Structure formats: C-alpha cells, structure tokens
PCI domain-containing protein
Amino acid sequence: MAVVTAAEPSAAQRKADAARKAAEAMEETEKAIGAAREQARAGALQDALTSLLALEKKHRLAGESPCVRALAVAVVRLCHEAGDWPALCEHVVLLSKRRAQVKAAVSDMVKEAMLYVEAQQDMDKKIKLIETLNDVTEGKIYVEIERARLVRQLVRIREGQGKIKEAAEILQTVAVETFGAMHKREKIAFILEQVRLCLDHKDFMRAQILAKKINPNTFARAEKAAKKEAAKKEAGKEGGEAKEGEDEQKAKKKASMGTAGDAVVHEAVEGTPDLEALKVIYYEHMTRYHASNGDYLEMCRCYLAVYETPTVAADPLRWKPLLQSAAWYALLAPNGPEQADLVRRLHGDKGMDELPGHKALLKTFITKEIIHWSALQSTHRAEIEAAPAIFGGAAGVKRLEDLRLRIVEHNVLVVVAYYSHVTLARLAELLSLDAAEAEKHLSEMVVAGRVRAKIDRPAGTVAFGAARDPARTLSKWASSIEKLLHVVDRACQQIEKERSLVSL
C-alpha cells in the first residue's frame, strides 16, 4: 500500500500564512484595546491596564512586533486619558524594562508620551514626565534624538525659572555631534543653545570648546549650494526640469538605501531655523565670546561674516549697522598686517559708499599722515555718538581709550615711514604726548615687534631702522668675505705675474 506524504508549503504560501496570522493578531489586539478603553472609561483603569499588559507579554514573547507596539502606545494613552500621571510614568518605566522588549515599541511609547509633555500645563507634572522619559531613554541609541529634545524642553523650563547654570549643565549632558540620525540643522541649533547658555552664565572657556564643534565651512557650503541651485533654475526651464527629474530619482534611491541600512536622517524638529539663520546666531554668539576677551579683530570678522550673508545683505536696515560695527572694530584692533588688510578691504567695500562718514574715517587710517585725537573727535563725533553699543557704558570708556591708543600707534608708524632719526622732543610733539608717554608707547611697539628703533636717552634721540634677518645678515657677511678673498687672490696672481716678468 503506497504512503502519501503531504507536500511542503512553498515560500509564497508560508509568507501568506504569516501575513494572515499577523493580521489576525492585530485584529485581536485592536479588539482588546477597544475593550480596555471601555473598561477605563467605566472607571476600571487598573483592570484595563492589567489585561493589556498580559496581552503585550503574549505578543512580545511570540515576537509579534506590530502588536507589541500598538499595545505599548495604548497603555500610555489610557493612562493619559484617565488623567493618572503617576500611573503614566510608572507604566512607561515598566514597559521599557520588560525582558526582550521591542525597541520600536519603546520608541513609539516615548514619542506618544512626548506629545503629552508639550500639552501639559501643570509644571510639576510636566517636569516629572520629562525626567521619567529621560531615565527611560538614557543609554538607548534608538531614542537618542527623542532624549535630546526632551532635555531641551527641560532646559527651557529651568531657564524660565532663572536657573541658568543648572540649565547649561543639563544641556551639556547630551553630545548631539555623535548622533548620526539627527538632522544637521537640529544639531547645530542644539550646540548653539549650549553655547548661548554658557555665555549667559559667563562660562566663556566652555562656550569656546562647544563652539568649536561647529564648522563654519558648513554655512559657506550651504550658501554656495544655494547659489548654484539658483543659477541652475535661471539656466533654463527645460534643462531645469530634466535635472529636477534626475535629482528626484537620486533622492528616492538614496532614501531607499538609507531605510535599508537603518541610517535614515530624521527631519529637524519644527521651528528649527534654516542654515542662514543659524549662521547669524553662530556669529552673534562668537561676537559675545570675543568681546569677553577684547579681541577686536575677531569681532570684526564675525560682523563681516554676518554682513556677507545673502538675506542680511538684501536688507539695508540689517547690513548697515553690521558694516559700521565692523569698521569700528577693525580700527580698534591692534596694528598689524591682518588689521591693515581688513581696514583696506572695508574701505573698498561698495557698501561703504552709503556710509561716507565711516569711509572717510577708514581713509584717515589708511593715509600715511599724522592723526590728531582732538581733530578726529570733532570731525567724527556723529559716527561715535551713533554707536552707543560700542562706545557706551563702562566698556565704551575702555574702547575710546583703545581708539586713542590706535591713533598713537598709527602716528608712530607714520613717523617711522618718514624719519630715520628724530629727537624725543620732536617725536612727543608729533604724537601730541609728553616725552615720557611717547617713549612708553614707542617702547611697547618695539617690544611687540611692530617697529625697530633704538632710543638714546642721554642724547634724547631715536634711531629707526628696518628689522634685520639674522640669516640674511650672515649671508651678506659671507658674500663680502668671499669677494674680499677673491680680490686678494687676484692681487696675489698679479704679484706673481710681475715677479715672473722681472726675473726674466
């Protein structure tokens, strides 16, 4: 008698059976969630949660991820709808710590709870839920973005309470620069928030360390890409449409590859500024940092970077004050090659044509002529009074003194350009200072390496000379010795020649 064996199901049949079972399980889950919701509305919240937790365990051990995710979210929703915040926090922790818990379930549960954080008006309940979610997400890479956003919400609360230092310390616990799935704009905005809080409580060293995590070239590349895109659009409609189709295909291919490789970059949170706005914020923070160190040259560069931003350059109400500030800080910076280059660059900027007073001021410092402090004050009084942010307050007094010092340095350089020797009395007269102060400023510039001079106090004279390179001096001496030896050798040859002729 022949034995008939059943044929093994094909791959398609197995797949269809798995899909059918998953659909049945999801249908069962939805019915259970509906029944639990009715129980909770009737006042039996605990019974409803118990039934859902038992069903969640069953599906979790069976490896049915969609059902586990739906049940985890349902538990959180029931607690919220019942207004039981202690139960909400308790079950969030409970579900996250269950054995072999599905990562996607924890992620969905955290995202659901975050919606309740934003809607909650009671500050104590809000803080409690945020702290609970922070504990749940700590150390879990798959919810690192959610954790960063929760920390930022907690920081806003602490800052609103006036606890700036505590807010800064909390925000620094999150290192978003290591988050591969976070959008670049959101990363930069997060780091800038860290920098701002450090600046607010005068922690300038840490602010500098955090600011170095942002590469300024990111903003330049974004502006370059925007200009390139605008040029392509203007190139022609047909060519633009063809390129748009190619870009769309590439984007779809990239998106599918990212999903397969589990390396999808999430969209930035709503309200995140674009890169141009982030660039402006970045340089505003760097201006505050450099102002704390009195680094006028870097402050000037920061103002110029903001001034060159396309959106700022299109608005005269924004770029004019920036260009004025850049001009003042360029003049306040100590004399040097970089400072001189910035002053010339600003003087040649076309925007300066609309600021004739500041352009004339820059021209004064470019010209190799003596500047008198009293004359400059009277001539450019309007420009000085129009900059209260620079010359107002206690810091403004110091900056006026620094401006006067820059004038003295400029005058010394003018004297060096026209004199090789000068008496101290004449130098003091040219600088509009007494002899002691003139000698002091000259000595400081010599020590700083800006000029080369020798002061003869008994004679009361100053000798100016160009700086000599030791290597060049040695080379010149060696060349002179070589010429001397060559002359001696030629003389010896002539003497020997004469002796030979005489001996004949």
Observations:
- DSSP finds 25 helices and three strands in the chain.
- The beta strands are 421-423, 453-456, 461-464.
